Amino acid sequence: MENEVKKADSGRRTTLMVVISIIIAFLVYYAVMSMMGPAKTMAGLKSRYGVQPAEENPVDEGVFNDSIYVSTMKQKAFLQARIAMAETDSVSLSLNLSDSTAILEINGVMVHTAKIREIQMSRILRSGDVNLITSMLATPGHIVRDFATIKKEPLMIKMAPKDTSEFKPDIIPDTSDYEPVGYILEMERGLRIFVYQAEQDTAPDRRQLRMFDLKDRMRNTWSSMKKVTVFKVPEYRPYIKLRLPRADAKIIYRAIPRKGQVAVYI
Known about the structure:
Elements: H1 2-49, H2 67-86, E1 91-96, E2 101-106, E3 109-115, E4 118-121, H3 123-127, H4 130-136, E5 141-148, E6 182-187, E7 192-197, H5 203-229, E8 239-244, H6 246-255, E9 261-265
Helix pairs in contact: 1-4, 2-4
């Protein structure tokens, strides 16, 4: 009887060790595949937006690193993107990260301006190939999907009065004024723009925004897991994270169309 108990314990320990080893091996494999994501993304950007100098007329590569040249090309790319957006009749968003400004435009006319309080961005955008990123941003990005803590178009359900004697003016406040504002704009080129309210005065606001961020992380982790299990490198998507005053953040989210356009100057 004692020998049987020892054998059972030994079998359970062996099984546990095998399971732990498999989990560790998968985590190592997942980490390695995830680290390959940025390199794959950069290679894709180079193949799509990279400059290929003509062999018969080579250009001094030092020109591409000249500060005046880089600044001029960045301004030109931003203007090109804004001009392209101005050709449409819908509201568009311009993000000038150099002077921390978010601008709503219609036909090239600025209709609302907000000051960005805080900016974070992925390393690819912050310290990658400037000319490559500039080339990518020379055309506006199109929003393909968004996630938010507030409604895009707030609805108010109201019962019609039977006659004028029962009519009462609207006194129902917009409940989103009391909700924390946070949203994610996913662009067709893989860029993700996070916008959060700058104010975090209450614990419920902080908790709700943390849950919103956690859901996004879980969504991305699940997507990466599905890629890894079929031996594919998970997609790495560059990001820009902004903090705006709550009122401005809400105005911008509700003003731009679901499939709207965004121009970015870095």
